[in-house]
Amino acid sequence: MKIGELATLTGATVETIRYYEKEQLLPKPSRSAANYRLYHEAHIERLQFILHCRTLDMTLDEIRVLLQYRDKPDENCGEVNVLLDEHIKAVERRMKELAQLKQHLLVLRQKCTNEAPAESCGILNALADHSCHD
């Protein structure tokens, strides 16, 4: 199948597929006589694996490690467990950061409770005051 068909089947964009090839996450496809990229079932499965990992907010480096183990099914998966444990900790840190961000935004939102001229908007004034860290 051509790249457009692969994109349609997986929900990825053509640009994403090319990027993953460039990053060597997807193997180079064969080429047709007209020099079109030709993809196979293995490309679909691998791309779906990558896309699933991305929905879990995994980095390309993390995915690269997971793919190495996926490509060598006889190896011990201990490093996969460690990788996932580290990713869980990173998600927990990000959740705390997002909770703090939400709190800052809620405090900021309270700076302007009704419509007023922009020059007297409490939100805009608080954002301009870089020393303000409520």
Automatic annotation (TrEMBL):
Biological source species: Psychrobacter coccoides
SUPFAM superfamilies, per the entry: Putative DNA-binding domain
Domain HTH merR-type intervals: 1-69
Protein name: Cd(II)/Pb(II)-responsive transcriptional regulator
Signal peptide from the UniProt entry: none
Keyword line: DNA-binding, Transcription, Transcription regulation
InterPro entries: CadR-PbrR, DNA-bd_dom_put_sf, MerR-type_HTH_dom, MerR_fam, Tscrpt_reg_MerR_DNA-bd
Lineage: superkingdom: Bacteria
SMART domains per record: HTH_MERR (SM00422)
